Amino acid sequence: SGAPAGTLRLGPDAAGVAEAAALLRAGALVAFPTETVYGLGADAGEPAAVAGIYAAKERPRFNPLIAHLPDLAAARREGAFGPAALRLAEAFWPGPLTLVVPAAEGGRICDLARAGLPSVALRVPAGGLAHALLAATGRPVAAPSANRSGRVSPTQAAHVLGDLDGRIAAILDGGPCPVGVESTIVACLAGGPALLRPGGVAREAIEAVLGGRLAALATAPEAPVAPGLLASHYAPRARVRLDAEAVAPGEAVLLFGAARPAGIEAAGACLDLSPAGDAVEAAANLFSHLRRLDASGAATIAVVPIPPAGLGEAIRDRLQRAAAPRPGGPAPP
Ligand code: TXA
Ligand code: MG
């Protein structure tokens, strides 16, 4: 056993998909693109394969993973869909929405992938390549984001290889991910739908389909704690400073829209998430811009205020995690 010597690069054609599916069916780890971010996939029914995900990512705890499926029919073999879950699946699948529902009896997803919970997180991603891979694999595929634990999520194949080259069997390269932030997670358990993580589907769109407000995690005591949602996460090396109205000399700056903070002339590297102030475009650029500003070597990345509407909620959530105190103390200089 041990890490594979080299990671196989597979192209986005029929041969690449067939090879990736064969590797997944054999219990290997394969990174693949979804419309949100690249996932690190393994057969969700094979505990040894799922354990390999935690090892490759150096994920310290067994957080529950999202299982990816080609369509709603396959998802219904793994989870029990009540009326609200069904309405959301029909409205947003395939797409960047994950539903946490009671695990179905006789489902294939193993305990380790569910971290022992009686519920299961299911997602039908959009995007032809992900769909082709899931259909060819014919099994639920567990996949967290394909980064080392605590690092920024990958939206390009090069990001994945930077973190995981040599630790995973293969990567299916489908180019950049169009949405750029992870899926929205909604729990549909007892007590009504609750938002566990903002993401690629805006809260407003979900509430429009449900005809009512989504409960927040804090006000949904029946909702399970999603461990991956709490600690510092998505952390670049640099310190991250939010809602900056002014920047210090040498600070890297993450801009949004046309506004320019005071002191910008003396700043270091500057990138704009969306010069037009469009939250959808900003989400698509978020993680790659963070990586590029981090690579500039600046000690701090100052982020201008970002409005919370639409995908702004998910962008602000990821930036707050990037700015949170690190488990190992402050980021190294
Ligand atoms: O867009 C995405 O969702 C990406 C792509 C690859 O699909 N995947 C992703 O997975 O972001 P990951 O593992 O980074 O995030 C999964 C989140 C974690 O915060 C986990 O705690 C939560 O889903 N989760 C999984 N199963 C759960 C469950 N049964 N109850 C509550 N939370 C759950
Ligand atoms: Mg992640």
Automatic annotation (TrEMBL):
Pfam families (alphabetical): Sua5_C (PF03481), Sua5_yciO_yrdC (PF01300)
Sequence ranges assigned to domain YrdC-like in this UniProt record: 14-201
Keyword annotations: ATP-binding, Cytoplasm, Nucleotide-binding, Nucleotidyltransferase, Transferase, tRNA processing
SUPFAM superfamilies reported for this sequence: YrdC/RibB
Main localization of the protein described in the UniProt heading: cytoplasm
Record's subcellular location: Cytoplasm
Enzyme nomenclature, EC number: 2.7.7.87
Keyword Ligase: no
EC category: transferase
Reactions catalysed, as given in the entry: L-threonine + hydrogencarbonate + ATP = L-threonylcarbamoyladenylate + diphosphate + H2O
Entry superkingdom: Bacteria
Function: Required for the formation of a threonylcarbamoyl group on adenosine at position 37 (t(6)A37) in tRNAs that read codons beginning with adenine.
UniProt similarity note: Belongs to the SUA5 family.
NCBIfam families reported in the protein's UniProt record: L-threonylcarbamoyladenylate synthase
PANTHER family: SUA5, THREONYLCARBAMOYL-AMP SYNTHASE
UniProt name for this protein: Threonylcarbamoyl-AMP synthase
Organism of derivation: Methylobacterium crusticola
